[in-house]
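Entry — protein

Goal — fold tokens:
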Amino acid sequence: MRVASVPASHIYVRHLGEPGGGDGVRRLPDPVPADGRKVPGGWWPPVMLEPGWVADNHDQFDVFHVHFGFDAIAPDSLRNVVDELDRHSKPLIYTVHDLRNPHHSEPVSHHKQQDVLVEAADALITLTHGAARAISERWGRTAIVLPHPHVLDHARIQQPRPRHSPFVVAVHAKSVRANMDLLPVMDTLIPVVQALPDTALQLDVHDEIFERGNHWYAAALGARLVEYDRHDHVEVRVHPYFTDNELWDYLSSISVSVVP
């Protein structure tokens, strides 16, 4: 079976297949934009959702599977894509990863995009039973619940977690997505962690929020986050995006991760 996955390169999607490729499924590689454009983080808008791609490539795949990456695609453009899939009798599968887009400050745009995809999909997949209930209540559709595959390799999964001293409570601000409310979270954690014996609070944030002209530029907020380092039991770390291995090392080095 040939699957056009949007996207194909993300680790969630890559780990859907049987190791070694013995499941008979071949996923088309992500087409690279001709102009080389990318968005923050090295991601590029999915070419498979551009006008005309399905018409030009429908003989290259059997199933079209949308995971995510359609943030900047207008609902009318998505409707053109699903109409083109229908015209060429290509089934659409949509994995509902986000009921609420973490990059958007308002839900309206994402809801309109999802209305198009959910209503047109031949099958829906989601990650939890709670999400499946929400999909049923909103669209009257039944979604198959399939939790995420693992993202670590076997050696990392089997590796024992090291013992930590002090006990580290960690908050990762990343590049401060729209769905994060960091200041109240940090203001709550600081006195709680201070009252615990042999416990430290660690805040990580990407350095690009201090880069003028960057999509994620938020220097004023960044300055407030760096100020938390004045507390003896708080360490603020400003750094570039973690590589995969750096991220696994980070998660292994902390005791609790508080999602803000």
